[in-house]
Amino acid sequence: MNAGQMLCHLTDSFLLPLGEKEVALIPMSPPQRAVMKFGALYVPLRWPRDLQSTPEVTQGLGGTPPEEFEADRTRLIRTVERFCDPRNGLEGRQHPFFASLTRIQWLRWGYLHADHHLRQFGA
How far apart are CA 57 and CA 105, in angstroms? Predict the structure, then answer.
């Protein structure tokens, strides 16, 4: 993934909890889901590289392809601002791996996900 693709991937990912991009829930047992959610959101380790994502947000599959870097960067910033707005209705929205998340869990996920990708580019 290059920097432009990363911007689009993050934008697509932030659109999921805003209800503007749809993705199916990944099938797994409730105990698996609970362990995965706890590990990803609360274990103080960086997420490993090359984690699998859903096709809807994966570059080269269903993710939005990059166009012009500055426009893609601006789109991401605006999407993150909307994601952080307390009126956005995140509470109870479904994450494809973790299922229902609280607003606080969504915000934590958003930080961790963006941090994961920005570190790949030394940002």
Answer: 20
Predicted confidence band of residue 100 (pLDDT cuts 50, 70, 90): very high
Please tell me what DSSP assigns to residue 88: S
Distance CA 103, CA 92 (A): 7
Residue owning tokens 């099938």: 27
pLDDT digits (tens, 9 = 90+) for 10-20: 999 999 999 99
Q: Got the DSSP string for 4-73?
A: HHHHHHHHHHHHTTTTSS--PPPP--HHHHHHHHHHHHHSSSPPPTT----GGGSTTTTSPPP--HHHHH
Domain ranges for the chain, please list them. 3-120
> What confidence score (pLDDT) does residue 29 get?
96
28 Cβ neighbours under 8 A, 6+ residues apart: 36, 97
Q: Which amino acid is at 122?
A: G
**Averaged confidence pLDDT in the chain:** 94
What is the pTM (predicted TM-score) of this model? Answer: 0.93
Output the pLDDT for position 49: 86
